[in-house]
Amino acid sequence: MRGRAVVDERLAALLPAASDDQDPLAAAMRAAATTPGKRLRPTFVLLVTESFGGDAVAARDLACVTELVHAASLVLDDLPCMDDAELRRGAPSVHRRFGEAGAILAAFALLARAQGLLPEALARAGVA
């Protein structure tokens, strides 16, 4: 299983669509979580699942939970009160594109999405 490709594809499906500028929160969430990155954390989840004989396909949402939480932490870390980063993964940081309030709302929305996804993802992955 190719971790990054699987996670990128699934992340796009788990996040709200941002097909236009009518929903800036959805656009900010997608910008934070789908900007190309190494996806090390979710790939490790998939590799560990496979190494213990689990089904990596069944664990892909669990892997995405780790990436959603990580993306939220990066958005918050980039804020002016923290690092005031201009760029993240080669693109303007979320607060530069959507404002500080938009970035904070996007980070908390990503955390809420991860929390909502977690129980079902654990069950699907076979975790009691």
Number of strands: 2
How would you spell out the order of helices and strands?
HHHHEEH
Return Rg in Å: 15 Å
Oligomer state of the chains in this structure: single chain
Strand content: under 5%
Mean pLDDT: 92
Binned, the helix content reads 55-70%
Structural class, judged by helices and strands?
mainly alpha
| Low-pLDDT runs | none
Strand order, biggest sheet?
1-2
Number of helical segments? 5
Distance between the termini: 24 Å
Largest sheet: 2 strands, antiparallel
Shape: elongated
What does this structure look like?
The protein has 128 residues and is mainly alpha-helical. 66% of the residues lie in helices and 3% in strands. The protein has a two-stranded antiparallel sheet with strand order 1-2. α1 crosses α4, α2 (24-34) packs across α5 and α3 runs antiparallel to α4 (60-78). The longest helix is centred in the C-terminal third of the chain and has 31 residues, at 94-124. It starts with a helix and ends with a helix. The model has no long low-confidence stretch (mean pLDDT 92).
Features of this protein?
single chain, 128 residues, mainly alpha, two-stranded antiparallel sheet
Set out the fold topology.
Elements: H1 3-14, H2 24-34, H3 40-51, H4 60-78, E1 87-88, E2 91-92, H5 94-124
Antiparallel strand pairs: 1-2
Helix pairs in contact: 1-4, 2-5, 3-4, 4-5
